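Please describe our next protein:
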Amino acid sequence: MEAGLIAMLLRQLEYLVSLARERHFARAADACYVSQPSLSAAIRKLEQELDVPIVRRGRRYEGLTPEGERVLLWAQRILAEQQSLKHELSMMRGGLTGTLRLGAIPTAMPVVSLLTTPFCAKHSQARVTIESLSSRDITQKLAEFELDVAMTYLDDDTLGQVRKTPLYEERYLLLTPEDGDLAELPVATWAQVSEQPLCLLSPQMRNRRIMNGYFTDDGVTATPAIESDTVSGLYSHLRGNHWSTVISHAWLHMFGVPAGMKVVPLKSPAHGPRVGLVIAARSPEPVLARALLDVARQAGVHTALDELLDVHLMGSQLAR
């Protein structure tokens, strides 16, 4: 196939992927920096060349036909492989270029910099984009080649066919006012925590559902007065030294322990939920994803977070 025809096919596939993502012809055209008639004509041309209907057409975009859904899967794969080839060749020329697309569940966002900072230091010509995503969105975006790698819970059954690289196990802590009822305890129980004025993550967050299981195992139900879908939303309520919350030890990396608060270990299982990196199970691995995995294996995230936790726990003990 001539180079011009290959370029035309790739543009057609790019337009189709954009249309499926935006679900609107005008928005898809804007995303591709072309006019709407140009995008529509290119997709019609693709339909003619493949001899199948791809788009359900009415007065507006109505989705893809079954044949179109199959073409979309191949389009996503072909475009992803094209980008991987470009990145592989850039590495061979002496420097990794391109943009690493990283997705992370909100509760893992506080530690992303432990990977992205050394990644950028090692690959100074590469860039990183980071999205805060639910585990469901991560699964979908990995399947649709819209992410190179994701940081999420490794025991998530919805992940599908992925390769996993463990980073750390979550350890849960009570963050409570230093003059509070539980501040001087060496270890607090989940039942004791449930009696405190609480702000917790909202129930749609996987982290909160894990915590709810621990509350249930201790024979209680937590009824927080305040719920948030972000870690920063919880921390914003701790400045007044009235509320208590339950945190993952990983959050200490970004937020630490606010003034007037103490961190107290919680009675939890010996092994907490595992958080790690996942990439789609395909060969060859995308070179950008492989580069981040190489950095992750050397970064010692588990050790760094455990050492940080020890520092904070020691500080709490000295303050007693």
